[in-house]
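@channel anyone free to eyeball this complex?
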Amino acid sequence: MSDNRIFNFSAGPSMLPLSVLQRAGAEITNFGGSGMSVMEMSHRSKVFQKIFDDTQEKFRRLMGVPEGYKVLFLQTGASGQFSMIPLNLMSRTGKADYAITGNFSNLAAKEAKKYGTVNIAADTSDCNHTRIPTQAELKLDADASYFYYCANNTIYGTEWQYVPETGNVPLVCDMSSDIMSRPVDVSKYGIIYAGAQKNMAPAGLTVVIIKEELAGSELPYTPLMMNYKTMIDKDSMYNTPPCWCIYMLGLMLDWVDEQGGVAGIEKIKAAKAAMLYETLDNSRLFTCPAQIGSRSDMNVAFRADSEDLNAKFIAEASAAGFANLKGHRNVGGMRASIYNAMPTEGVEKLCEFIKAFDKNN
Amino acid sequence: MSDNRIFNFSAGPSMLPLSVLQRAGAEITNFGGSGMSVMEMSHRSKVFQKIFDDTQEKFRRLMGVPEGYKVLFLQTGASGQFSMIPLNLMSRTGKADYAITGNFSNLAAKEAKKYGTVNIAADTSDCNHTRIPTQAELKLDADASYFYYCANNTIYGTEWQYVPETGNVPLVCDMSSDIMSRPVDVSKYGIIYAGAQKNMAPAGLTVVIIKEELAGSELPYTPLMMNYKTMIDKDSMYNTPPCWCIYMLGLMLDWVDEQGGVAGIEKIKAAKAAMLYETLDNSRLFTCPAQIGSRSDMNVAFRADSEDLNAKFIAEASAAGFANLKGHRNVGGMRASIYNAMPTEGVEKLCEFIKAFDKNN
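replying in thread with the prediction:
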């Protein structure tokens, strides 16, 4: 990589394309002849409104967001949505279905219990979340306010390879760690949301795609900033939005366009993930805890049998310019997060490093 | 100004020092030899933790935050605090005092009514908020959970020139538009908070200074991300914080240091405001709606008698490089927001422009 940059395998925040950062840097004191940085602009000004509108348009186009859905630019990450979803949707029937496939869906279910009855539709904690439940395993309540799941489990390295069928129950999905890595049929969902800091933009922005008809049933004590209806009515500008992150998202979306859109990204990411899993499967030392058929293309968890070897691998990889490969404490071992902006070159070089380590240890 | 930049009198987001923007631009692809942008760093990494800790230390030092208080880096702006404050403090006695001196304190009081009984301790809407109430006018309830006020009213151009005396009732203050423009005795307050986008950093960061003993009495339905106790216990990192905005705040605090700290800033801002008010008071055409003794040093509202002249002034000023001088629709006329980062040169040139306009019209 140029500019003395490293390959950063962090689970998030994570890499951004160098070209995007360079573009942001080039206009940081004067955006488009406005005489201002985007960081200095009134959110009510024409120049910022155009950035906002263009970013909305690009996101809708690239994600194929249909009519009847609104795209919101919010804050406070997935954890904010853990509350906002039940605050706004739980009153439909007073209960909701949650599939527990990792840490974040578990936290979401725990938070939802403050606001109604939570039915655990699936729970893979008995196998330390090494697999995704099948459709047949889901214990669905036809009267649930919504069905909640997390598409990709960052910590455990698993990813749903199908969209759950829930009949008339609206699907709510946390796509924080795999949004824009594969085409999604938005019309199947009630709400899709993602903290932006893994695949889309710097931390501080949460993108929500919501079927508009689902808004307007919030519980009476719903905080102002957690009311989807208000955010829809005010087009995410009830108050000052995170302007810089929205601008950065716009630059990222231009980059996604350059990669051939989400379909183009999918091809690249599938090749990157296949290369890494193949390298690991062919190694003597390493195994992947995630079961085949449930493996994530975004977060590749792997480990050697011995803790000494894991520690040695992480230390040597770090010294060689592969940063943040240590696995989460719930799983141990290593984790390579290879989000959209991780260059193919980074995965190739990591594979070479793994092969050499495998040979020499 | 160099670099074809303009003087931006926006009420917020607003100007940042050029040197701060240039420094951010210089390290946007590689911060301090880390090989990463701050926008790409794991918030759990050592390199980001150091940015976070340094920013905390600088803020505490510059604001004189005493022991027993925590500084939180949150999101969702003042409107988020409108809910968070009653959600966490209202259970003390079930009621709270609010002083209504403008749009934002009014919205705060309205939101608080969701969570308890609101006593209107003062309300200056009868004079369209052209003045700040005196201490003697405040209708205080000795049993209130807290007393809430907004230190500076951006729309109306008024500013509290004293700290209300409320006995044992904790003071809660929105300082979004005048924080760091004057020294504050933090020990007099229970909570001080500020959206960062006027005087401190880009939009997307809300800084809260909270007396720690006030946390822990949240209502049972308080959302995860709106629980002060959780944010204190997790040092603002329950989940990913707005890392870039925190970094930018750190750069801004270095700049405040270069100006002689908050005391140094106060001298500069008092001189800027005095120059502008004197020019307006000595003009034939312009008057200031804010009453003397209640005038804001941050947002200077003024107007001519005729709407045609106001429109002409705004158009000609804009063409001359003075941006965003149109007043809020609640007040009309003009408003010059001269926050900390507005250079003295910008105010001097605006004064020259006002004098010439006054002579020629």
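from a first look: Residues 23-257 of chain A form a domain with the Aspartate Aminotransferase; domain 2 fold (CATH 3.40.640.10).
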